[in-house]
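User: Reviewer 2 asked us to show a designed sequence for the structure in our supplementary figure. I'm pasting the structure tokens here. Could you produce the per-position amino acids so we can include them in the response letter?
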């Protein structure tokens, strides 16, 4: 049986409350899952069978994150069909909180080259846009040739499908524009006549751009780099250069300035915590062993401790029992 995608589209637009972009993504997943053997069009869709297929995919090495993307679409499908049961999500271990790259690490990514000149031109342009203005990955995928524009104030990218289907114009640095122009004029593959960034199969996919960034990070010793980490770097970099929070929020496509401040607060909180802890640790675990008494001069006799009142300003001893001399060779005064 074939998937009834027309009915699913109507349901998604009303009861499902899915945006057009989310719906298109959902349908791509459903077609993929049907090809993978989930038999979503079966009259009696079995929960046990679906769970078994998911466990088999996990045994073959599919990551929990990937499987949870499948689970989201499967649960939408069974809700569309009016089935009561749901598939639980897979638990995945906590990933360490890795900070955004610093400027020296960003320079390594900026200067990275590939063996093929065309691949170098395209990937350098992609990394430049990420590092420059921190576009979202899907926004990068959706860029068309006509979205790379030259305004009276300078080069810009028109993001027509931002979060919530909002459109905005993002000013880019001239160095970034030069990379895009070189890629478009010399190396761009015209497999997709509209897309800005392409490969031999057409417009780049979500996974393809993620792999470009991941591979670039691994080549410069930063295997934890992701598209979102580059977005954090662009945010910090703009704020460090004195751009106001309101302007950065506009460039990033944040509806609320508070969202932009979360990017900044996270980094500053981490730095403040480290500085505070290091300052507190500066006096810990010192060598507290008592120091040895200084050696006495051989020509000085041992004398009992005396109070200052026993030493006169003219050098004569006041009441020094036994008449033993002090180690002081000259007059002692206080």
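Assistant: Here is a per-position design you can include in the supplement:
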């Amino acid at each position: 049986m074939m998937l009834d995608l027309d009915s699913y589209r109507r349901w998604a637009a009303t009861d499902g409350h899915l945006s057009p972009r989310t719906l298109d993504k959902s349908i791509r997943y459903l077609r993929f899952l049907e090809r993978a053997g989930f038999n979503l069009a079966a009259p009696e869709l079995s929960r046990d069978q679906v769970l078994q297929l998911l466990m088999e995919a996990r045994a073959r090495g599919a990551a929990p994150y990937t499987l949870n993307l499948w689970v989201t679409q499967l649960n939408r499908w069974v809700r569309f069909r009016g089935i009561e049961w749901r598939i639980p999500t897979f638990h995945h271990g906590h990933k360490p909180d890795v900070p955004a790259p610093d400027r020296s690490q960003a320079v390594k990514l900026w200067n990275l080259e590939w063996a093929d000149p065309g691949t170098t031109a395209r990937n350098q342009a992609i990394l430049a846009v990420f590092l420059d203005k921190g576009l979202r990955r899907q926004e990068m995928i959706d860029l068309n040739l006509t979205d790379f524009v030259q305004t009276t104030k300078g080069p810009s990218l028109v993001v027509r499908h931002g979060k919530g289907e909002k459109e905005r114009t993002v000013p880019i640095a001239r160095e970034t524009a030069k990379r895009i122009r070189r890629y478009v004029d010399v190396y761009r593959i015209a497999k997709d006549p509209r897309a800005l960034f392409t490969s031999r199969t057409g417009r780049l996919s979500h996974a393809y751009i993620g792999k470009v960034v991941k591979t670039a990070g691994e080549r410069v010793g930063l295997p934890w780099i992701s598209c979102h980490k580059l977005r954090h770097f662009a945010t910090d970099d703009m704020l460090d250069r004195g751009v106001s929070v309101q302007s950065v929020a506009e460039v990033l496509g944040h509806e609320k300035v508070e969202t932009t401040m979360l990017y900044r607060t996270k980094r500053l909180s981490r730095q403040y915590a480290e500085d505070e802890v290091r300052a507190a640790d500066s006096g810990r675990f010192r060598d507290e062993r008592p120091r040895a008494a200084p050696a006495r001069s051989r020509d000085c006799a041992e004398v009992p401790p005396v109070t200052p009142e026993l030493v006169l300003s003219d050098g004569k001893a006041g009441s020094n029992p036994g008449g033993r001399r002090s180690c002081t060779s000259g007059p002692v005064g206080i």
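For the response letter, you might also mention the following. The radius of gyration is 35 Å. The longest helix spans residues 257-281.
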